[in-house]
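Weekly structure sync, notes
Attendees: PL (lead), two postdocs, one rotation student
Agenda item 3: pending single-chain targets
PL asked that the sequence for the first pending target be pasted directly into the notes so everyone works from the same version. It is reproduced below exactly as submitted, 153 residues in total.
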Amino acid sequence: MLRPLAGLALVAALSGCASDRDTRSAGGILSIDVPAQFGDGATKPVEYRGQMTVGERFEVRLGAASGTGYAWTLAGPVPANMQLTSADPAGTVRPAEGAEGRPGGPSWTVFGMNAVAQGTATFRFVLARPWESAGGAPPARQVDVTIEVAPRK
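Predicted structure, written out during the meeting:
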C-alpha cells in the first residue's frame, strides 16, 4: 500500500527500482518528481507507482538540461480514466528554480492530469531528440508510471 506524505515532493531513487511511496501536496495533488540524470544508468527504465481517487490531480515533473535538443513526451495515448490539464499535450517546460535565464540550465517538463474515472492508468514518458527517435534511435531515458484510481468516497 502506498502512503501519501503531505507537503513533500517525491524524488525516487533512479536506480531502476520502483518507488514505494507517493506524495500528496496540501491541495491533494499526487506529485512525482523525476530529476535529470546523466551518465551510467540514465538509460535504465524507471518505474513509479501511485494511488489516487477520482477527482484528484496527478502531476509528473521530468527533469532535463535545456538547450540539448532532448524533450520529454508522453508515448502513447492518455489513459481513458485520465484527462490532461495542460494546454500543451507535449507538456509545459519551465526552468528549474534558480536557473531562470541561464542557457543550458536545468528545466522541468510538467504533465498535469485529472483522474476522471476509476481504474489503472499507465503512462510512459520518454526523453529523446525528435530527429533521432524518428530514425529509430532508442530514447535517452524512459519513465513508466502506473496509477491506481479508486472511486470517489
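Discussion points:
- The first strand starts at residue 10 and ends at 11.
- The chain has one domain: 10-150.
Action: rotation student to compare against the earlier draft before next sync.
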